[in-house]
Amino acid sequence: MASLTDSWELEGITVPNRVLLAPLAGIGNWFVRLQAQRYGAGMAFSEMVSSHAIHHGNEKTITELLRLHPDEAIVSLQLFGQDPDVMRSAAAFVAQNTRANVIDLNMGCPVPKVCKTGAGAALLKDPETAIAVTQAAREGSGLPVTVKIRSGSTKGDTSGFELAHRLVDEAGAAAITFHPRAATVHHKGVPDYDLAKELAASLRAPMILTGGLRSPQEIQRVFDHVQPAAVMLARGSLGNPWLFESVLGERADAPERDEILAELDWVMRSAVEHLGEDRGARYLRKFYPWYLQLLGSDRTTQDALQRSESVVQARSILGISQLSAVA
After folding, report:
1. Enzyme catalytic residues
2. Nearest to 10 by CA among 304, 229, 233
3. Alpha carbon distance 42, 38 (integer Å)
4. What is the pLDDT of residues 77-124, one digit of tens each?
């Protein structure tokens, strides 16, 4: 039986371990990916990026969402869209203008504004388009293309299981990331790990498992039961990059307060580098609660940080010594 610390192959790419950072919508930018890799993630996936925005040359998409840091190792850029020609164009742009190692296609997002365009989880109901989009991404990029899907559209539906096989057998998907929950339940309920185990055993490509994986003990138990090629950490790693070290057996103790504050300071400086002082200060408001939960901070501190208008002010609230801003 494989270990989480074992390396594995993804269409010619050697991934150093089996613990990955999941694509996190609105969150998974370069510094979130780099942070996960600093703490041991074998591979990191970007937040989902619109293929239409890339195809039409949207400046913010290209300069911010497709930005990779020089220190990032193995990175997959996740795209979404339902038009094969547009996906082919976007995938070609990614391959030619970034150093991404892999392209991932999101066919599992249940958010209505994505599904109403025919993308995301809507493709579970349109397998022929899903296959065509996957083929187009491969043709356009020449990179390994993986696909993230759900088990089905509604509770009890297992159409994603069949689609996973077709995406590998007919469209040449290099791997499938499987979230064994229905799209309609979003992140609620217990994932169907038995179905995931059946898929891992029957798929002619690596299967990456995601969904409901939060504690090191639970992750190890599910990994042993399902036996996927790898697991993805998502919400459980927000504000807790030390989870990667724990899962990989490199850490036994929880981080101390000073370590948490130092890491949060690194995140704050990175946000300023990425977005500038003003936008970075606003963007960081979604990050503070994750770290404050580990710190055990009270509601007063939470509220003060949500009202903070600058990173300097936020550092003062947290008691972090002022460090020079990142240029």
Report:
1. 109
2. 229
3. 10
4. 999 999 999 999 999 999 999 999 999 999 988 888 998 999 998 999
